[in-house]
């Protein structure tokens, strides 16, 4: 199982789509407050459809609460459009933590400084970043490809 972490998500539709992806890939979703929406927001439910009831999700009041329960920081991978190493140069393992920042600004320098593994998804120079739901799908897809098609 992969652990998908959203730090301060802002857009309910993205979080709902990611929740649905987590159910479909048997991944666990970790949500770190504050959110830019209410967790029972109708858009969140609409995006997650009726799958939300099957989602394995944990909420944390802040980043420190989430970090406190991590047993192996070497298996935490932070996604950043500024990273040098790509997701395709990484060997993912069952139980890894895949961390994504808020839609408007990504992960803060303070969070990035707490972990060594920073990864990027290759993209053309015509865009700054991918939509977070698409980014999560890219990374989860690559990890699962590695798990099942070695």
Strand arrangement in the largest pleated sheet: 3-2-1-6-4-7-5
Mean pLDDT: 91
Largest sheet: 7 strands, parallel
Helix content: 25-40%
Rough shape?
globular
Instruction: For the record, give the distance between the C-alpha atoms at the N and C termini, rounded to a whole number.
Output: 17 Å
Rounded to an integer in angstroms, the radius of gyration calculated over CA atoms is: 14 Å
In terms of structural class, how would the helical and strand content be classed? alpha/beta
Query: How many β-strands, per DSSP?
Result: 7
Strand content: 15-25%
- Order of helical and strand elements: EHEHEHEEEHEH
Report low-confidence residues grouped into runs of 5 or more: none
- Count the helices. How many? 5
Structural notes for this entry:
The protein has 150 residues and is an alpha/beta fold. It has 5 helices and 7 strands; from the N terminus they run E-H-E-H-E-H-E-E-E-H-E-H. It has helices at 12-25, 42-48, 63-68, 109-112, 132-148; strands at residues 3-7, 28-32, 57-60, 76-79, 85-86, 97-100, 117-120. Helix 1 (12-25) runs parallel beside helix 2. It is globular and about 35 Å long. The protein starts with a strand and ends with a helix. The model has no long low-confidence stretch (mean pLDDT 91).
Provide a compact summary of the structure.
The chain has 150 residues and is an alpha/beta fold. It contains five helices and seven strands, in the order βαβαβαβββαβα.
């Amino acid at each position: 199982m992969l652990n998908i972490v959203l730090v301060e998500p802002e857009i309910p539709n993205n979080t709902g789509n990611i929740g649905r992806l987590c159910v479909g890939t048997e991944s666990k979703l970790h949500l770190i407050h504050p959110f830019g929406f209410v967790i029972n927001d109708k858009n969140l439910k609409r995006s997650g459809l009726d799958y939300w009831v099957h989602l394995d999700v944990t909420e944390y009041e802040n980043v420190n609460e989430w970090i406190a329960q991590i047993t192996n920081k070497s298996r935490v991978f932070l996604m950043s459009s500024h990273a040098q190493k790509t997701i395709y140069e990484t060997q993912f393992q069952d139980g890894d933590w895949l961390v994504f920042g808020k839609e408007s600004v990504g992960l803060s320098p303070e969070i990035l400084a707490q972990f060594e593994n920073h990864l990027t998804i290759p993209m053309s120079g015509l865009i700054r970043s991918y939509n977070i739901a698409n980014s999560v799908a890219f990374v989860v897809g690559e990890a699962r490809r590695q798990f099942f098609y070695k």
